[in-house]
Design goal:
Elements (H helix, E strand, L loop, with lengths): L4 H4 L7 H6 L17 H4 L8 H12 L7 H8 L1 H33 L6 H10 L4 H4 L2 H36 L12 H7 L1 H7 L11 H23 L13 H15 L2 H9 L7 H27 L15 H33 L8 H22 L3 H29 L10 H32 L1
């Protein structure tokens, strides 16, 4: 429900200036001696999280808005293939997050830096890599990471607008079917949401928004339980009679939505930077991602099995009109409305860092709000043009997270391991990097094309 909540507490709050400007990285220890640097002790004092608290931050950071549409991607791909791939993709995403954290630990020792953000790790890995010609592109990878984060999160805002509008439209019409048509049509609801979205995004302090992330996490657990209940109640066929696999286009849509629903590479370093025992980040990823995969698995499986080929996104649209389910639908619309502002905060602050250089400081207050409103208008126009949830999520997952979640981490690790500890027996580390990059490229190219094609088809 806000695949970035922990981002607020680390990468973009305390170190945003450092992350955007980019420090100059100087090697101070050899790879062999890097482990002797105690980066945890070198960190500034402050409130730190234990393993359990870190797991909680990870869970609420990874469960993005895609989880309310994961059942529809199960429908496109086939139940049993989706169930297996959810677990496989969960493992791959967890491993990518682990790669980023362990790469940061290597850099801490070599550079004698106590903490870094994801863009810092990306830039530093290239800046000190063993290939002199590559080092000049270190800033490029930083900007690529920042760009991918912006596209991903601004795109998430578009998805949230559509989810809110579909929920409101169903409640107003009192029908089980939500289409683009109607009186008023779905696109009219998107336009009507413009002013409320501008108003809430004028809140520039996170202290007024962040507490809602806890409520959103509780809501997700209730939603998972409700999906199990209604799924079992309304299922018309046995679970073993459900389709196994439906085809490549559906598979590509599923992969994009699945990755989007539980990817947390962008917040890994924020969580690690705030841990009391950052070297135990592996345990946090193991426990936290197990919970994340479990919730995605439950909503996807029971959402599709229970509501079948007529299932709609968000999953609450399939629930009957009872007092409990209506309350759930209303509550989800409110929660996602606040989450919209949370998601908008991170990428806008990143972009604003560069924009504000054009204006004198005395005019920052005025121009920041002008640009905030302008960005919301653009987001609303995109949501107005492409009001399809599942394909939009699949497009974001395929384009953004194939890079940020797979290709970038693999390249970072390879650059750091090339000389020490080396490529390993039969160059297995190089082979691993190549395989991950091939998968990321496949998902990025074919997944983006398939989901973009389907999004355009369903929108016009």
């Amino acid at each position: 429900m806000g695949a970035i909540t922990s981002f607020f507490f680390g990468d973009r709050t305390d170190t945003s200036k450092k992350s955007n400007q980019g420090p100059k990285f100087v090697i101070k220890s050899t790879p062999e001696n890097a482990a002797s640097y105690d980066f945890a002790a070198a960190r500034p004092p402050g409130k730190k999280t234990n393993i359990l608290e870190s797991v909680g931050h990870l869970v609420k950071s990874c469960l993005g808005g895609g989880v309310v549409a994961i059942h529809e991607s199960y429908k496109s791909c086939g139940l049993w293939t989706s169930m297996v791939l959810t677990i496989i993709m969960g493992f791959m995403i967890s491993y990518s997050m682990y790669i980023i954290a362990k790469s940061a630990h290597k850099l801490y020792g070599r550079l004698h830096i106590s903490q870094m953000s994801y863009p810092d790790v990306a830039e530093a890995a290239i800046a000190i890599c063993p290939f002199p010609r590559m080092r000049r592109f270190s800033k490029c990878l930083r900007y690529a990471v920042d760009f991918t984060i912006c596209v991903d999160l601004f795109g998430s805002c578009c998805v949230y607008q559509v989810v809110i509008c579909r929920t409101i439209k169903q409640l107003v019409e009192g029908t089980d079917t939500v289409t683009l048509e109607g009186d008023p049509p779905l696109r009219a609801y998107v336009l009507m949401l413009l002013i409320p979205c501008i108003v809430i995004c004028m809140i520039t302090s996170l202290k007024y928004l962040a507490p809602f992330s806890i409520v959103a996490d509780i809501f997700l657990l209730i939603l998972a339980g409700a999906t199990i209940y209604y799924g079992c109640k309304f299922s018309k066929v046995g679970i073993f009679e459900m389709p196994i696999f439906k085809g490549l286009p559906g598979l590509l849509e599923f992969l994009g939505v699945c990755v989007f629903s539980m990817e947390g590479v962008g917040v890994t370093m924020a969580i690690e930077n705030n841990m009391k025992e950052p070297k135990k980040i592996g345990r946090v990823l193991l426990f936290g991602m197990s919970i994340v995969v479990g919730i995605v698995f439950v909503i996807g499986t029971f959402g599709y099995w229970g509501f079948g080929e007529h299932s709609k996104s968000p999953v609450t649209l399939n629930f009957p009109f009872t007092t409990f389910s209506i309350t759930l639908k209303v509550f989800m619309a409110i929660i996602i409305y606040v989450t919209f502002a949370l998601n908008f905060w991170v990428p806008f602050n990143l972009v604003w860092f560069y924009i504000k250089k054009k204006y004198p400081p005395v005019k920052y207050w005025f121009w920041e709000r002008v640009y905030r409103a302008s960005f919301i208008v653009v987001i609303t126009l995109i949501a107005f043009t492409f009001p399809n949830v599942s394909s939009f999520i699949g497009l974001l997952g395929s384009f953004c997270l194939s890079n940020m979640g797979f290709i970038y981490p693999a390249l970072i690790e390879l650059c750091l391991d090339w000389d020490y500890p080396g490529l390993g027996f039969m160059k297995w580390r190089l082979l691993k990097c190549v395989l991950i990059c091939i998968f990321g490229t496949f998902l990025g190219v074919f997944g983006t094309y398939t989901n973009a094609k389907e999004l355009i088809r369903q929108s016009f």
